[in-house]
Amino acid sequence: MAQNVFRSGFLVRAAHTLLTWAITLTLFLHNTDLRQCEERGELLLPVLFICLVVLSVLLYFAVSLMDPGFVLSDTVKSSQDLAEEMESMVETSAPRLRRCGYCLLQQPMRAKHCQTCKRCVRRFDHHCPWIENCVGERNHRWFVVYLLVQLLALLWAFHIALSGISPRDTWELWFRSNSFLLASLVLVGVFSLVVLLLLGCHFYLVSINCTTWEFMSRHRISYLKHRDSEHSPFDRGVFCNLWDFFCICRTVVWE
């Protein structure tokens, strides 16, 4: 039972939610700019901050629970037909005839089998352990939006936590009075750096229409490893790539 709960991602999602609200509560309980605005009756900034935190949590669960673009079962074939097709694939090595060696489904171009999810994902980018889900064709854009909102919330929280650090007569008193805020600062600072790096990497890859898997494993991917140029064959220019990624919601036949 415990193993099934862990595999479902319950513990990871619960940890994310608890940590988010624990840091938020710490910012409100200490003498930060947020607390001072609340005491003066100026509720605009506290309400905006809470709305941003709630939005980041909702996006987290949306990306975490969303179907990333799992490849559905194809036409059922007899074992003899399947064996003949696998043999022909070895001989011709045509990308459009790829069949997954794990789930035995026909893989569209840019799809990959995820060992953790045990399913093939269209336009596979990577499996993210923090959301306990794959990032693929259907949730990749929402993953990038989530990173952007999360970064804004983290940077704002970092500024609020800094405003609450108060001076004391001795180092011991200073550390005791600010210990929770200091812990929040460290966590928020580390997460901000990680999210910033992730967001930068994903924006770059999106701008050239390339996935993390294709960028990291180019030498092992059948439709990329024999190309002379490092240029992505799916690149249509920065503007078109960004437009297609954020504004076009449809399944693309990359072949």
Give me some keywords for this one.
single chain, 255 residues, mainly alpha, two-stranded antiparallel sheet, 9 helices, 5% strand, disordered N terminus, protein-cysteine S-palmitoyltransferase activity
Topology:
Blueprint: H1 2-7, H2 10-29, H3 33-39, H4 44-65, H5 79-92, E1 112-114, E2 119-121, E3 126-128, E4 133-135, H6 140-163, H7 171-207, H8 212-216, H9 238-247
Antiparallel strand pairs: 1-2, 3-4
Keywords: Acyltransferase, Lipoprotein, Membrane, Palmitate, Transferase, Transmembrane, Transmembrane helix
Subcellular location: Endomembrane system
GO cellular component, one term: Golgi apparatus
Short description:
The chain has 255 residues and is mainly alpha-helical.
Describe this structure in words.
The protein is built from 9 helices and 4 strands. A two-stranded antiparallel sheet has the order 1-2. It has a two-stranded antiparallel ribbon with strand order 3-4. Helices cover 57% and strands 5% of the residues. α2 runs antiparallel to α4 and α4 runs antiparallel to α6. The N terminus is likely disordered. The chain has one domain. It is elongated. The protein starts with a helix and ends in an 8-residue tail after the last helix. It has 255 residues and is mainly alpha-helical.
